Amino acid sequence: MAERVQIAPTVRTCPGNADGGRKMFNDNSSKTTVRDNGVIKGAPRPNNRRRIYVTGSNETIKVPFEEVLLSSTMEANGSTTPNDPVRLYFTEGPECDPEVGLDELRREWIIARGDVEEIEGRKSQIRDDGRKRQRLNLLGDKQETEVPKFLSKQRSVLRAKSGANVSQMYYARKGEITNEMEYVAIREGVTPEFVRSELAIGRAILPSNINHTELEPMIIGTNFLVKVNSNIGNSAVTSSIKEEVEKLKWSTHWGADTVMDLSTGPDIHTTREWIIRNSPVPIGTVPIYQALEKVDGNPAELTWEIMKDTLIEQAEQGVDYFTIHAGVLLRYVPLTAKRVTGIVSRGGSILAAWCLAHHKENFLYTNFEEICEIMKAYDVSFSLGDGLRPGSIADANDDAQFGELDTLGELTQVAWKHDVQVMIEGPGHVPLHLINENIERQKRVCFEAPFYTLGPLTTDIAPGYDHITSAIGAAVIGGGGTAMLCYVTPKEHLGLPNKNDVKDGLIAYRIAAHAADLAKGHQGAKQRDDALSKARFEFRWEDQFNLSLDPDTARSYHDETLPATPAKTAHFCSMCGPKFCSMRITQDVRNYALEHGVEDSEAVSLGLEEKAKEFVAGGSQIYLESIK
Amino acid sequence: MAERVQIAPTVRTCPGNADGGRKMFNDNSSKTTVRDNGVIKGAPRPNNRRRIYVTGSNETIKVPFEEVLLSSTMEANGSTTPNDPVRLYFTEGPECDPEVGLDELRREWIIARGDVEEIEGRKSQIRDDGRKRQRLNLLGDKQETEVPKFLSKQRSVLRAKSGANVSQMYYARKGEITNEMEYVAIREGVTPEFVRSELAIGRAILPSNINHTELEPMIIGTNFLVKVNSNIGNSAVTSSIKEEVEKLKWSTHWGADTVMDLSTGPDIHTTREWIIRNSPVPIGTVPIYQALEKVDGNPAELTWEIMKDTLIEQAEQGVDYFTIHAGVLLRYVPLTAKRVTGIVSRGGSILAAWCLAHHKENFLYTNFEEICEIMKAYDVSFSLGDGLRPGSIADANDDAQFGELDTLGELTQVAWKHDVQVMIEGPGHVPLHLINENIERQKRVCFEAPFYTLGPLTTDIAPGYDHITSAIGAAVIGGGGTAMLCYVTPKEHLGLPNKNDVKDGLIAYRIAAHAADLAKGHQGAKQRDDALSKARFEFRWEDQFNLSLDPDTARSYHDETLPATPAKTAHFCSMCGPKFCSMRITQDVRNYALEHGVEDSEAVSLGLEEKAKEFVAGGSQIYLESIK
Fold first, then answer.
1. Residues from chain A contacting residue B265 (CB–CB below 8 Å)
2. Which phi and psi angles does A253 have, rounded to 5°?
3. Which of A63, A537, B220, B306 lies 20 to 30 angstroms, CA to CA, from B55?
């Protein structure tokens, strides 16, 4: 952690005060706003949380946080001491009508840079919405794809002017601090210059397609808070567009920092449009899924032209990062032959099938520079896919996996030559003792480009509980420096996640990411633990609930045993059960030590003698009260 | 892991075949038995699991396993290859009528050693059943405590003859291999001599009170499978005796290796009697909880005489290990004054209160040798309690915690002087990066006595999900060498666990323990992962479910999306969703590589060319089929 440059104690908890002139902001999601030291604050909502905005060096930079208001500490002498509110990193975005989508907050930033042009964009085709839609049309099914109202806006497409590069890495390398960089600096509690320098050397990415103007910028890198991705998306048999938008909202509500739309079912183009227009967080995709739909599911018929068309289609919609399986090289494919579970990545298997069918090198690899040209015209970031990741404990850290990783490192340098942002995807299934090798090797061969791992799952034996098998691995690899964790839900290996599974997966991964932040010594992260534990110790139950990842669940579990209000308000409550009596005794120890300035052993010994007399004189009644 | 002496690939999965003459055993829990190579096997039960027994060098040693029967692999050429059954470590014990209790399988072993005597034992007193029972009696409440039928058996109490030591450590140090040692050797798949030697040097314990004759012996040590403890027990407001017995059964069903009865409510003595008489696993307690009840909840009134009386009472009932907070020394108490959460251990706070009230040294410390005399007369093992464990991230690894740990190391040597078995309890709340220091320090200062940790929780911010925050820490500390993990349920910090919470806690901890076994390179553990992953790869859904920690949940999650039977029987099923199509492609890669003996890169390259032609000729139809 020597490289970490910590400017202010910060985030997922508290960024401290940002500098710069602050202006009043009309917060649509909360009618009441107050202004407090230049920070715009909404009215407290349930759980004593309220939305606040910290403005940057210009009024268009308004960074959202959630602030938890705490009650006061009751001191031993009966006086009270207020507790500072705790600021939480906030991913949910503003409320909006899903049929309209979010405001295009970033549009003026992008236009103002003067390096983009508005174009008509690629014409939408019927095959963009997938095979099922094509078939329905062939069969004369007149049922139309739902068209969101906002499409009637005739939204224009932005693209870099000819020869221009609009990637955040490009700006960073020129020494320019963009509004996006300042935004994430406030969000993370670091200086804008630190953000810029991390982007410039490729140790972080700021995924922000110029066509995703609704985005609230965020950053992914080992020297920032560990991020979490959730996967949503329909399949041939399940889900409607509105359900997917609901899963998006649900994901950001539970703390997803990015969301991948992995749809493979009908209306794939339209579903993505709805998702992006409603998303405050970066959206990632695996474009080859859609390309495969365009060739009716036959990998052998994939061509570079179809892939390129798909990349442009999605870039124009505003996808922020593409998973590109360009490391699945022909020579690595047979290395999977002796594995217990072969190739488990869908993208990896599609490319392997293509390579085998044509006995040619992976067309994503051979056309990689041309992909870079597309990426930099829209600022789409690479998420270089691990198509050969292990699918079982037995296959972890093998030659196929690490061979591909070497190639991803080579491709990282190609992308960086084009000033295109890159992160690297990682496994998968890895037992605990082999995790460290993954992160250390990735850092080395990929030159510290951000690592983005799926779990890893630390055992194969618990289908139905893979949010737990993988949260263990995720916390460990996150603590080791992984920048973003791709969640795994309880349904992994068994079925597509529903809304509850999305929540379970995200809570498990918020835990893993936070445990990793603590392991990395993140002071801002620890503030939240300390505030919660202080509330717990002081019997401030509501504060404890409100500071927790899931206040409603914490409250309801508590209320199952002790539903009465007094149990949540009494400071030293005899109803609280044995667990908390012990805290009462410590309170006495502490008060005594503080009053007498007890510091060293001798003083302690003297003090205890005095305390002992006092206790005997008082009949030790407080213990009788507290332990029952 | 250099010290690990692995005799046979083994357990939680498969101990291989034990040697010695085997006899037919009448398995009461399964009417049908078959005999197969001397191993007694019951009829398959749901989930294709069946109880089997491996007999040892004499017919009284019958070690239970659960065997999972697997279907055959369908090879590419249409032939089938059978898959060996997988043996699982089994903690559930035989079925029994809870009002009668389990058979006293160990009684004859103990008697035969000739070093015990049957005694009348301590007379039961009204105060043994706690304050509430006392008050009810004072109030003239005639409602009697439920008396289990087996008490009418007039069960006699066993105790070491005067001057004798009946601890397994004592026998081990004499070079004697007891039936208990042979039993656990079969269970763990190691030699009896290895078990003996680990017990002799104190690196493992075999908790087995001579009055817990119903016990199925097990071992706790860093060179054996990682074990899991579950806590049950009533409180002043909840639970009946029968509910607690049900929680015991539920615990062992979900894989608890030991169970602690932490009852503090009414009928504390009688509840414990029912639990022990029904328990196939070692039972642990915190005797000071009951001692405190005997003095009406006032720690200052505790005396060594009351504590001693309680230790003997519980030793005569058959408690296998006692948590003794003898390391909470007077001088450590003030070190907790500046903590965020002070003293969170109930036992620790009781002792701290006693020390403060009397300004005297902890009476468990000053009477420790006399405690050892009691322990060795019944073979009760020490679980030296960490009364000063950290209760928050902020307090981890502080002077109070490590001061107490040093004292526990000193006490370990005192206990070992008496040939009394010892394990050491550990934290608590510890962030990931501080976990390693805990295990390394414990090994050093406690001379490799087994470590038994509560979690640790790796963050404080997720009340309601502490089975997950702590499973992360448990897996890591287990992988580092912790011998037993004390589970944490979702209700930790919020309320007493119900039956579902017990299950959730145990599943999370079975995952953590297994992940730790894999990290320690346990070959037997890995066999289960490999068998499950092979089943997954070969679309043997039922085998995958049956090998999992919770087959019913895995099956039901699968069936939510694809309930049809064909989805669980088809070998290469187009209905299985995108995830599994990728496996189909690997199957082709693998078959090809095997057929052609492809080994090195050149051969691979040639092979691919041939494969490519074949694919193009075949119209690549299999992909069309598989990816949709």
1. none
2. -60, -40
3. B220
Question: What is the ipTM score, two decimals?
Answer: 0.89
CA distances from B353 to A105, B10, B359, B427 (A): 60, 47, 10, 21
Residues contacting residue A230 through CB under 8 Å, at least 6 positions apart: A251, A254, A256, A259, A260, A487, A502, A505, A506, A509
Whole-model pTM over 0.80: yes
Token reading at A44? 């407290």
Secondary structure percentages of chain B, helix, strand, coil, to 5: 45, 10, 40
Q: Does B511 touch chain A (CB under 8 A)?
A: yes
Q: Which helix (H) or strand (E) holds A228?
A: strand A227-232
Q: Is B597 on the interface with A (CB under 8 A)?
A: no
Alpha-carbon dihedral sign for residues A618, A622, A623, A625 = positive
Tokens 């019951």 locate to B42
Secondary structure class of B45 (helix, strand, coil): strand
Reply yes or no: is the peptide bond before residue B456 cis, omega within 30 of 0. yes
Q: Among all residues of chain A, which has the CA nearest to that of B605?
A: A331
Q: Tell me which residue has tokens 């510091």.
A: A599
Residues above pLDDT 70, as percent of chain A:
79
Instruction: List Cα–Cα distances, A510 to A439, B435, B461, B560, B601, in angstroms.
Output: 20, 20, 10, 26, 43
Average pLDDT, chain B: 84
Residues β-bridged to residue A425: A452
Q: Is B81 helix (H, G, I), strand (E, B) or coil?
A: strand
Confidence of residue A123 (pLDDT cuts 50, 70, 90): confident
d(Cα B97, Cα A34) in Å, to the nearest integer? 67
Q: Please write down the HEC assignment for all residues of B147-158.
A: CCHHHHHCCCEE
Cis ω for the linkage preceding A390 (within 30 of 0): no
Chain A positions in Cβ-Cβ contact with residue B457 (cut-off 8 Å): none
Dist CA B497 CA B490 (whole Å): 8
Strands B33-36 and B39-42: antiparallel
Strand A484-486 vs strand A451-454: parallel, antiparallel, or unpaired? parallel
Residue A625 pLDDT exceeds 60: no
Q: How far apart are CA B548 and CA A460, in angstroms?
A: 8
Q: How far apart are the first and last CA of chain B?
A: 46
**Sheet order of strands, A62-68 included:** A33-36, A39-42, A49-55, A62-68, A86-89
Cβ-defined contact of B491 to A557 (cutoff 8 Å): yes
Task: Count contacts between A and B (CB, < 8 Å).
Answer: 470
Can you spell out the DSSP letters for B214-278? T-----EETTSPPEEEEEE---SSS--HHHHHHHHHHHHHTT-SEEEE---SSSHHHHHHHHHHT
Q: Give the C-alpha separation, A267 to B364, whole Å.
A: 71
Asked if residues A343 and A387 have their Cβ atoms less than 8 Å apart, the reply is: yes
| Sign of the CA dihedral with A494 first, then A495, A496, and A500 last | negative
Residue among B362, B465, B606 with most chain A CBs within 10 A, to mutate: B465
Cis peptide before A428 (omega within 30 of 0): yes
